[in-house]
């Protein structure tokens, strides 16, 4: 996606969201370091142990996943009600502390078709765990997607054994909504819990989500 332009026609910086201790910046596909930071967090030993290897090791991997799972307007999706006219091609937020330029966490909002509603994902560097950063960032990210872009019926998922992510989901207002399985790029399936917002659309219990982008999913 071309970089946004201001009223004078000049390139505008990617949107940022500030919380008490953090700065959330929308991923910029024109900035190579954004790819490097996202890949680093996504493939840290801690993230892989919690979320599995989701097959995002190169810039091409990231672009393919974003193309397959990026937000879009469809008649059956609540994205048709969203207030923005253009969704980011790379629905990723990079999280930094106010005191450092180092990315400590990433938040994604992927729409894994044919399921019509997008899911909020988050991954954080292990040394930053236990300080409330994950909850603070996820709350800020959820507010951005819902209030600034008008996306409704966001849900979150976490593997059954990932209790830390369960706690984050519950702290930012999600409730348990069912179970599903994730088919990883290596062919293995892992069971997970779905978390939905109170009053949101019910989750289709038992669904299997393919984490590997495919040509058919990018249409």
Q: What is the N-to-C order of secondary-structure elements (H for helix, E for strand)? A: EEHHHEEEHEHEEE
Derived from helix and strand composition plus strand pairing, the structural class reads: alpha+beta
The CATH topology turns out to be: Aminopeptidase
Tally of helical runs: 5
What's the count of strands? 9
What's the structural domain tally?
Answer: 1
Give the N-to-C terminal Cα separation: 17 Å
Strand content: 15-25%
Shape: globular
- Report low-confidence residues grouped into runs of 5 or more: 1-11, 74-80, 215-219
Largest sheet: 9 strands, mixed
How confident overall, as mean pLDDT? 83
Radius of gyration: 16 Å
Could you name the CATH class? Alpha Beta
Strand arrangement across the biggest beta sheet: 1-2-3-4-5-6-8-7-9
From the 3D coordinates, which CATH architecture would you assign? Answer: 3-Layer(aba) Sandwich
């Amino acid at each position: 996606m071309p970089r946004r332009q201001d009223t004078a026609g000049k390139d505008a910086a990617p949107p940022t969201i500030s919380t008490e201790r953090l700065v959330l910046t929308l991923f910029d596909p024109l900035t190579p370091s954004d790819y490097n930071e996202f890949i680093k967090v996504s493939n840290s030993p801690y993230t892989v142990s919690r979320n599995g290897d989701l097959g995002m090791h190169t810039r091409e991997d990231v672009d393919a996943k974003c193309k397959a799972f990026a937000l879009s307007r469809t008649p059956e999706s609540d994205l048709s009600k969203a207030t923005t006219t253009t969704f980011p091609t790379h629905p990723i937020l990079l999280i930094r502390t106010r005191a450092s330029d180092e990315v400590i966490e990433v938040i994604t909002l992927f729409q894994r078709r044919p399921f019509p509603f997008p899911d909020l994902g988050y991954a954080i560097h292990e040394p930053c765990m236990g300080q409330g950063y994950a909850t603070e960032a996820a709350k800020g990210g959820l507010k951005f997607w819902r209030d600034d872009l008008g996306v409704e019926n966001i849900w979150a998922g976490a593997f059954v054994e990932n209790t830390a992510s369960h706690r984050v989901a519950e702290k930012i207002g999600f409730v348990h909504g069912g179970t599903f399985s994730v088919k990883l790029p290596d062919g293995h399936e892992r069971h997970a819990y779905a978390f939905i917002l109170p009053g949101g659309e019910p989750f289709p219990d038992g669904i299997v989500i393919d984490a590997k982008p495919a040509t058919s999913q990018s249409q």
